[in-house]
């Protein structure tokens, strides 16, 4: 590693290095030789975060949650009510849905989720549904999560039928996970069995092709 630094003329600050450590705290994360997880100090702040009646404080909490979205499955769906609340020109009204989103985020982050590093020697698994996906590694059923992603359907996408939405999720997930899966074999898992119908199509539907 140091030879590469010399090769590209990169200068290092010794006082900022930690050698022979199996675990370090960095940017509100705990990084080990096998995984990355939230720093317990951060999760304590999340758990103790009070219910707010002001948009400014909700934006702060929302920003904190967004920073850790890769640890949370179906993040965009969970925060939907908060996202709508913080839209421009929206009257600030804290509803029961907002409270549920708030409490669910606190619960999930307080569990100190752990994400594994990707290893080329272990099989990759992409599991999707219509609103999100998880990339994991290992034997199916005992696979360990690498990262989570989720998204909100556009106005046009909401008009897709269920099969089209599930297919869209797979295509979108593969594009998002490209840095991890490019050049490697991986298995896609979906709970929508009708997608196997696509293998029987002799003339694919135009919208599916695009």
Descriptive terms for the model:
alpha+beta; 210 residues; RNA-directed DNA polymerase; four-stranded antiparallel β-sheet; nucleotidyltransferase; hydrolase; Ubiquitin-like (UB roll); nuclease; four-stranded mixed β-sheet; endonuclease; Alpha-Beta Plaits
Please describe what this structure looks like.
The protein is an alpha+beta fold and 210 residues long. It has 2 domains: 29-114, 2-Layer Sandwich (Alpha-Beta Plaits); 118-209, Ubiquitin-like (UB roll), CATH 3.10.20. It has 9 helices and 8 strands. It has helices at residues 2-7, 40-47, 55-67, 75-78, 80-85, 96-110, 162-176, 178-181, 206-209; strands at 23-26, 29-32, 35-38, 114-116, 124-129, 132-137, 144-150, 186-190. The strands form 2 sheets. A 4-stranded antiparallel β-sheet has the order 1-2-3-4. Strands 7-6-5-8 form a 4-stranded mixed β-sheet. A hairpin with a 2-residue loop joins strand 1 and strand 2 (29-32). The longest helix is centred in the middle third of the chain and has 15 residues, at 96-110. The model has no long low-confidence stretch (mean pLDDT 86). It holds the Pfam family RT_RNaseH_2. Keywords: Endonuclease, Hydrolase, Multifunctional enzyme, Nuclease, Nucleotidyltransferase, RNA-directed DNA polymerase, Transferase. InterPro entries: DNA/RNA_pol_sf (IPR043502), Retrovirus_Pol_polyprotein (IPR050951), Rev_trsase/Diguanyl_cyclase (IPR043128), RT_RNaseH_2 (IPR041577).
């Amino acid at each position: 590693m140091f030879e590469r630094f010399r090769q590209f003329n990169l200068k290092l600050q010794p006082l900022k290095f930690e050698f022979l450590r199996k675990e370090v705290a960095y940017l509100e994360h705990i990084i080990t030789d096998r995984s990355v997880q939230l720093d317990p100090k951060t999760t304590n702040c999340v758990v103790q975060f009070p219910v707010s009646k002001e948009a400014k404080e909700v934006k702060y909490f929302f920003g904190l949650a967004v920073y850790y979205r890769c640890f949370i499955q179906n993040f965009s769906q969970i925060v939907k009510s908060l996202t709508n609340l913080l839209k421009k020109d929206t009257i600030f009204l804290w509803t029961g849905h907002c409270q549920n989103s708030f409490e669910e985020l606190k619960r999930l982050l307080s569990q100190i989720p752990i994400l594994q590093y990707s290893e080329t020697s272990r099989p990759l698994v992409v599991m999707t549904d219509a609103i999100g996906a998880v990339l994991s590694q290992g034997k199916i059923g005992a696979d360990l999560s690498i990262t989570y992603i989720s998204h909100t359907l556009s106005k046009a996408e909401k008009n897709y039928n269920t099969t089209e939405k599930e297919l869209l999720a797979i295509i979108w997930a593969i594009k998002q996970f490209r840095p991890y899966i490019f050049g490697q074999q991986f298995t896609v898992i979906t709970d929508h069995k009708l997608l196997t119908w696509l293998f029987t199509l002799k003339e694919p539907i135009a919208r599916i092709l695009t």
